[in-house]
Amino acid sequence: MTFQLAERLSRISEPQTIKMAKLSRELKAQGIDIIDLSIGEPDFDTPVHIRDAAKKALDEGYTHYTPVAGYADLRAAVAQKFKRDNKLDYTAEQIVVSTGAKQSIANLVLSVVNPGDEVIIPTPYWVTYSELVRLCHGDIKFVACSVENNYKITPAQLEAAITPKTKLFMFSSPCNPSGSVYSKAELEGLAAVFQRHPQVYIMSDEIYEYINYSGPHESIAQFPAIKDQVIIINGLSKGFAMTGWRLGYTASALPLAKAFDKIQSQFTSATSSISQRAAVTALTGDLLTAQSMVEEFRKRRDFIAAGLAAIPGLKVNEPEGAFYMFPDISAFFGKSFEGETIENADDLCMFLLHKAHVSTVAGGAFGTPNCIRLSYATSMDKLGKGLERLGTWLGKLS
Ligand code: PMP
């Protein structure tokens, strides 16, 4: 029988990141020693005190539906986190807890984007942004950011991209995939532009807040004139090594929070009761795990950045946050090995996967087709082996 699926499915694609992770797993299952640099999650375990809180929650009977936007004390703990870490004032009612930052982004896009609305996305960007806008029939305006400006949009580029139809601007800092981090001065420059366009919502994805090597995290919500335009996306996946727990949240103006609550009430009802109890413990505790992860990530970043810079043909930026490298690999386009020619980043990723047995992600999925993304959320030993293989196999292309 032919299965008639809805038209919207043809408008979106499965994330390239998830596809590559799946391919790597398949090759590993065949016994091939794959160095997986495609992964987007910390290779650390959730801290013990957080896991203990989840076990306690089960024993105490937290096994029922929760309020859609999360337990009241969890929303209060998130509001308190914003005061503690970001000096931002939000009430608990302005916080909506979700099944991961990804759902928070979906809540936002579904709540504000009408068909034909324009959404500005600077490239490179995280894969899900564009697909959610496509699901809602929004028109995406990509703004290409150059490696010379460390892949960050300038106020002039932003001003030029905004039209009366612009509804939403979507960005992350620290950025996945480039690792770029906007300084306070850079955010202030963008905020001045947004102040002139109060109809534009600003999605500030701060999921990598704690994984920042350049100093304290800065949020664009800190500028009072535009604070109500900003929707902060955050969650526990990266900073607390809790990807599988599925816990994200937003902070926004109250009418938006109410909209997210309404959307979520029809999609998921809420995230897991157990994850929410564990999240209270995570958010009210210390940040020692995040700090020790960052120190480890910093060592790996220095190691892999130096290693990649030494490979002829790779143009490497220096990431200031997150755990990804995003080298420009266009020097290899047109080169061949044993009759196989590399036409684009997808070809190079497949070449690296099947020949070097190193898994990476092609930059096209992030809107920057001249690059590939490598995650350094893996051991130094594996990074060392991965670099060696990359050097050897890229060297064979001529
Ligand atoms: N935003 C960015 C920039 C991400 O990299 C990710 C995860 N890869 C998410 C959001 C989604 O995070 P979560 O696991 O909380 O859904």
Question: Class of the largest domain, according to the CATH hierarchy?
Answer: Alpha Beta
The structural domain count equals 2
| Number of E-type strands | 14
Oligomer: single chain
Determine the structural class based on helices, strands and strand pairing.
Answer: alpha/beta
Second CATH tier, the architecture of the largest domain: 3-Layer(aba) Sandwich
Question: Strand fraction band?
Answer: 5-15%
Number of helices: 12
Low-confidence stretches: none
Bound molecules: 4'-deoxy-4'-aminopyridoxal-5'-phosphate
Rg for CA atoms:
21 Å
The sequence of SSEs as H and E is: HEHHEHEHEHEHEEEHHHEEEHEEEH
Mean pLDDT value: 96
Looking at this structure, what is the CATH superfamily of the largest domain?
Type I PLP-dependent aspartate aminotransferase-like (Major domain)
Order of strands, main sheet, comes to: 2-8-7-6-5-3-4
Q: Could you tell me the CATH topology label of the largest domain.
A: Aspartate Aminotransferase, domain 2
Largest sheet: 7 strands, mixed
Helix fraction, binned, reads 25-40%
- How far apart are the first and last residues' alpha carbons, in Å? 48 Å
Overall form = globular
